[in-house]
Write a structure and sequence with these properties.
Helix content: 25-40%
Order of helices and strands: EHEEEHEEEEHH
Strand content: 25-35%
Largest sheet: 4 strands, antiparallel
Distance between the termini: 15 Å
Radius of gyration: 16 Å
Structural class: alpha+beta
Number of strands: 8
Number of helices: 4
Shape: globular
């Protein structure tokens, strides 16, 4: 089972004077809400996490949702035997998370993993559902911290682009 989570950094506090309701895409994705993120396989008790404190958490959630859709471009979907690849790069370093989908399964690795560590593997369906849940839960948490964020049109568009996937 996949669990995606985050922790905001105390070293990089968000500016209280900012009008979050009017923050532009670049500011939302790259300048705010810094911390660390993790993807965990709770069944295997394994985790892939950052420990840098400066990862833009909203950008990570947004990029992860984009990547899940990018991995679903083959018309054969879960029947596709040809691997599909995507990567998530961290702008302040050379580190990347690497995603490879074959059939209905996605392997996730990172540059900072030991070469002996096997990738985390999840079904594409589970990854899509959990990535979108993570995005919506994160936005709810951030809106609790910064009430004016609830009026940001960019985030309205983001939520409508990546709606929650019903469990079923």
């Amino acid at each position: 089972m996949l669990d995606i989570g985050y922790a905001l950094s105390r070293r990089f506090p968000d500016p209280p004077e900012l009008d979050y309701g009017r923050a532009d895409v670049h500011t939302l994705r790259h300048d705010l809400f810094c911390g660390d993120v993790y993807l965990a396989d709770t069944k295997a008790d394994r985790e892939l996490s950052t420990a840098w404190g400066w990862v833009p958490v909203l950008d990570f959630a947004w990029a992860l949702c984009d990547i899940v859709e990018q991995l679903d471009q083959d018309p054969l979907g879960s029947r596709a035997s040809r691997p599909q690849y995507a990567e998530l790069d961290f702008t302040e370093s050379t580190d990347r998370m690497l995603f490879a989908r074959r059939f209905g399964w996605v392997d996730i690795e990172a540059d900072w993993m030991s070469p002996d560590d096997p990738p985390l593997t999840f079904s594409h369906t589970e990854l899509r559902r959990e990535a979108r849940d993570f995005l919506h839960d994160l936005l709810a948490d951030l809106t609790d911290l910064h009430e004016s964020l609830s009026g940001n049109a960019t985030l309205w568009s983001l939520q409508s682009r990546f709606p929650r996937v019903p469990r079923g």
